[in-house]
Specification:
Blueprint lengths: L7 H11 L12 E11 L5 E3 L2 E5 L2 E13 L2 E8 L2 E7 L2 E9 L2 E7 L6 E18 L5 E3 L2 E15 L2 E10 L2 E6 L2 E7 L3 E10 L1
Length: 202
């Protein structure tokens, strides 16, 4: 079974079974580091390029998060990842491939409670850098993108310093596309990003 076949509720249920430790309260001055797997699933229709409907496939890669708590339960988080790779289809045929890095900075609020299950919500800014874009049609280029991102998830405490995290993000990614220097349209990726991570507090 691949990561893309695992539903988000199923991941949460599994993490709840595996958890059961003390709550991991976040206090001002704490740092957390998370290592996991992220699955980027673009929306079903990704704009029109050169008069044809564009579709960009999903990609799964390792991710890394680091979060600093400047106040109790309030943290600034950076999301990083191994480059995601996508196929670009036009009218159903593969027209090219691209890679991207999606660093995202978010402000997260972790809800206070006495249970080992801690929900959190966040919002922030994403910068997506496209590179290694290739096509047999010519020199294909996707412009880098800035956009808003929202984040929701749950930490399932393993002990006082570690947790299993399941979360999902929505990221606004829309970019101009050129072929041999001529604009051929705008791609609208706007993906959901589901992730499962191991998070440790320092």
């Amino acid at each position: 079974m691949t990561f893309k076949n695992i539903t988000f509720p199923a991941v949460c249920a599994l993490a709840l079974v595996l958890s059961g430790g003390a709550a991991t309260a976040q206090q001002a001055g704490d740092w957390t580091l998370g290592v996991g797997i992220g699955h980027v699933k673009p929306k079903s229709s990704n704009g029109t390029l050169a008069g044809a409907t564009a579709r960009i496939d999903s990609s799964t890669r390792p991710i890394l998060t680091a979060e600093y708590f400047f106040k109790d339960n309030l943290g600034i988080e950076l999301l990083a990842a191994v480059p995601f790779r996508h196929k670009i289809k036009l009218g159903g045929a593969v027209a090219g491939t691209t890679k991207h890095l999606p660093p995202t900075v978010s402000l997260n609020y972790h809800l206070t409670n006495d249970s080992p299950v801690t929900p959190f919500l966040g919002a922030g800014i994403n910068y997506t850098n496209f590179f290694s874009t290739k096509s047999d049609l010519g020199k294909l280029k996707i412009k880098d993108s800035w956009g808003l991102a929202v984040n929701a998830g749950v930490d399932f405490a393993v002990n006082e310093r570690s947790a299993i995290r399941a979360n999902i993000r929505y990221i606004n990614i829309e970019s101009d596309v050129t072929l041999d220097g001529n604009k051929i349209g705008k791609t609208k990726i706007n993906p959901w990003v589901a992730a499962v991570s191991y998070v440790h507090k320092f």
